[in-house]
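Good morning,

Attaching, inline, the backbone tokens for the sequence recovery test we're adding to the shared suite. The designed sequence is right after.
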């Protein structure tokens, strides 16, 4: 398995390297220097868990009770961040019995390096068992924090253009972008059921990926990406700590319209992290999302430029 993984990594690297040799010096993407890109979006996202409780010989599905979020995102030069929450006034969220969903993410772009950080909190989940009635667990909470460190092998591929930020792809191209992925996830104990729902998962994986931006015309873009990864997960439950093999996969697809100032689009993503059995509680972690966004670029205020310059200088000194 490990030899196959290394072989795939080498082949993808060769594809990306030969790709760079064939590109010309003409501009492949446009940067909106000095512009602050902002967008608002709706996000239908869920972090589902499928647990196997070895002691009870039960397979348990946990799904969050609130899924539709509103969010805001901003991007200037090397910095990007977004926040999201699930307001009760949205129709899908009205009968969710005090459940909550909060998310925060940030990205740092340093040349070919892409540093991503995620924080995800949800409260109130539905527990489903085969041939048994579902149970709503108002106090069951999940917390996830982690991210990825990635490297873009093709300098003419705009990773920012995938998410319609402050760059716009002008010519179709793709890139090999391997990532080191790491996440910590906790499920907090609930006394409302007899099953053990308290567990912590620490995941590390290497995930080679290929992304492609297809420029349909000057302003329309279709973008997609696929990754397959292998790593380790440490499961810590009430009885013991076990380290097992982890497989991870993700796919994303986005379609959008992008001009110098206005942009809009749809972004869909899916991620699956699957464990081998070995602990009392084994969790398969799935995140699915679809986002509808609309954004606008305007001249950045001075305090944004100063903050961006401070971050850039800090990392320049580190290097």
């Amino acid at each position: 398995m490990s030899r196959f993984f290394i072989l795939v990594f080498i082949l993808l690297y060769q594809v990306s390297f030969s790709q760079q040799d064939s590109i010309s010096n003409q501009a492949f993407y446009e940067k909106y220097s000095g512009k602050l890109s902002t967008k608002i979006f709706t996000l239908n996202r869920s972090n589902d868990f499928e647990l196997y409780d070895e002691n009870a010989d039960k397979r348990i599905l946990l799904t969050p009770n609130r899924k539709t979020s509103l969010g805001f995102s901003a991007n200037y030069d090397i910095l990007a961040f977004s926040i999201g929450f699930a307001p009760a006034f949205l129709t899908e969220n009205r009968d969710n019995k005090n459940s909550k969903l909060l998310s925060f993410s940030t990205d740092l772009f340093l040349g070919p390096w892409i540093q991503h950080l995620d924080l995800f909190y949800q409260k109130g989940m539905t527990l489903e068992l085969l041939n048994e009635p579902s149970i709503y667990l108002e106090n069951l909470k999940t917390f996830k924090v982690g991210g990825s460190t990635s490297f873009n092998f093709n300098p003419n591929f705009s990773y920012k253009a995938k998410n319609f930020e402050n760059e716009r792809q002008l010519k179709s191209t793709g890139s090999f972008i391997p990532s080191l992925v790491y996440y910590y996830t906790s499920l907090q104990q609930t006394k409302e059921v007899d099953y053990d729902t308290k567990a912590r998962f620490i995941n590390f994986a290497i995930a080679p990926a290929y992304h492609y931006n297809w420029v349909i015309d000057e302003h329309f873009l279709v973008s997609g990406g696929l990754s397959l990864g292998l790593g380790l997960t440490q499961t810590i439950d009430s009885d013991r700590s076990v380290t097992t093999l982890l497989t991870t996969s993700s796919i994303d697809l986005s379609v959008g319209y992008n001009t110098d100032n206005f942009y809009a689009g749809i972004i869909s993503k899916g991620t699956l992290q699957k464990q081998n059995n070995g602990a009392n509680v084994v969790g398969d972690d799935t995140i699915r999302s679809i986002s509808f966004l609309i954004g606008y670029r305007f001249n950045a205020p001075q305090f944004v430029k100063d903050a961006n310059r401070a971050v850039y200088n800090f990392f320049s000194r580190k290097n």
